[in-house]
Amino acid sequence: MTTTVSPELVEAVRVRLARAGVEPSAAQVAVALRAERSVYGDAEILAVARALCADLIGAGPLEPLLAEPDVTDVLVNGPREVWVDDGRGLRRTSTAFTDDGAVRRLAQRLAAAAGRRLDDASPYVDARLAGGVRLHAVLPPIASGGTCVSLRLPPRRTFTLPDLVAAGTVPPPAVPVLTSLVARRRAFLVTGGTGTGKTTLLSALLSLADPGERLLLVEDSAELRPLHPHVVRLESRPANLEGAGGVGLRDLVRQALRMRPDRVVVGEVRGAEVVDLLAALNTGHEGGCGTLHANTAADVPPRLEALGCAAGLSREAVHSQLAAALDVVVHLARDRRDGRRRVAEVCLLSRTPSGLVQAVPALTFDADGHPHHGPGYEALADLPPS
Length: 386
Prior knowledge:
Elements: H1 7-20, H2 26-35, H3 42-56, H4 63-67, E1 73-77, E2 82-85, E3 90-92, H5 100-113, E4 124-128, E5 134-138, E6 148-152, H6 161-166, H7 175-183, E7 188-192, H8 198-206, E8 215-219, E9 231-235, H9 249-257, E10 263-266, H10 273-281, E11 289-293, H11 300-310, H12 315-325, E12 328-334, E13 341-351, E14 357-365, E15 371-373, H13 377-381
Helix pairs in contact: 1-2, 2-3, 9-10, 10-12, 11-12
């Protein structure tokens, strides 16, 4: 039986518990309910307590969505719109909040749990919650339609390469190519748009690394979960409210190089850390890899160029280091028909006579997973071990 709790009762119990300074346990909720002259049996009191705990200290109406095994993203666009992505594209749910104040309270409570501030003076927040959930929230009037909350859930489990083949993410003809990349210790990037499964695929590939290797994972939020016996994780830390104490990815890449890595892995290359990663891959650290946001594989060299130039390198220096550091791009896309994530192309990074690096298609896969050889296929097949 599902017990419905009215917003008025929740607010009344919230006020009583706050005034008493007690936790919302079943016993304390029962006392507060009796004080409100509400008569419930034991089973109903427990149900009400669970609902109140979700509203007072959990994710409120979002709790059932976060508990669904296939959900990777929960998106709140004001009090009346809650969307989820469960691997088949975005879909709107029937979940709703009573008003924008309820969404705002939830966002502020989650931000506070992460040690961050969210109010009119700081109307947006980007933080990591306990358990690895990534939180982003924006308050009105910046979000004109109401408070927006975005929750990205970490993977519930690590998918192996056979799992991804069975799910249709990796076409069977791509398996020997991807396996060879890892076995030969080639440096590569997994690229794609938001939510295309870059981290999932990279975790599966890292699980193929030799058990005798030491993997140094550098991430903003610990999302990579390779099935490997020797993994060391370094995680960035945001600055505190006074702006001090922050540790960025670039700092962590430098530290990782001093920790005797066999492979340096950057969970997401998106800033100045690209300089240190390219330098590391040019100084004997073979087999390095990471993920990068890019619309197509052809956009990867210009994207890295922009990041490197913003960090102080010249265009020529970026392409010189890129040509020597990275070998392959594995690009993921989402099928527009059903939202399925899949490997779309594998490209070889090659230097042109002008000195610039370009992505040369080696294998492309259509929506049904059928491979098509590109001009870079023979060179990809002949890549020697590092």
